[in-house]
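Re: beginner question about structure tokens

> Can someone show what the tokenized structure looks like for a real chain? I only ever see the sequence side.

Sure, here's an example I had lying around. Input first:
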Amino acid sequence: MFQYFDKIVKGTEREDSLIIIQNLKSMIGTNFSFLNYYKEIPVSYDAKLVNVDNEMAEFEVHEYQAKVITLEHKALIRAHEKFSFREDMIGEAFYVNAARKKVILCNFGYAKIRSDMRRFVRVVLDRSLEAEMIVAEDIIKGSIKDISLGGASISVMSKEQLPPGLDINVFLKLPDIANGSVHEVGVTATVIKVVGTKPPITVFWNSTRKNTPSSRYPIISTSAKSKSSKSSKSKHCNPASSRCPLCRHFLAAVLYFCAALPCHPVGMVCSVFLTY
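And the corresponding structure tokens:
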């Protein structure tokens, strides 16, 4: 399970909570930045502190934030410059009402947000995405579990040919939502780590720009290039650019596979994912 923060205890949990509450009491009316994750998609909106009473803090929040807090039963709050401490905070959900955009948090503690170290948003897929890894003369088939513009994790039945550090060529079968077709897109990648001893094995890899030897498939040296392309030259592109037609296929496929909040599925993903 994706763990995007570490809890920090400076005194005792009770003492830490009281210190945070004391700081919050002097900041009623202030906006704070909340952070939650839905299927590894970050959901972060400002929340206004409206009241502090009985070691609980009431916030006015965005509807999407309230929905995810309902699922996670907690919320991260980024450190505020006016606090007497510099750590981020976490609070447990005591009461959540998405319709009224109201959240009451309690049992506060300090936290260190780890997800900020990620370069790209990584998204858990609800629908399977087929992939083939070219290793030497063999083709290893698997299914993508989660994906980002910089890498992915894939489930395979054996790890014998996939040691960490190995450069591989991966082909993803990405659906084109507009016309219902499937595009096969290749990436050069490096195996980062392999998790598990029994099938299915999870292989983590990051995309790379290194040139790789040719094989029975056309090999590319950048983030995305279609097998059906008429050009024989490798073109470097910015994976985050929506102007690149291949990247648009990639982004469209991610939006198609991502499960977003029921109230506004596509808009929710776009607002977070396409900014990278």
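Each token stands for a local structural state, so reading them left to right follows the chain. The CA atoms of residues 196 and 225 lie 31 Å apart.
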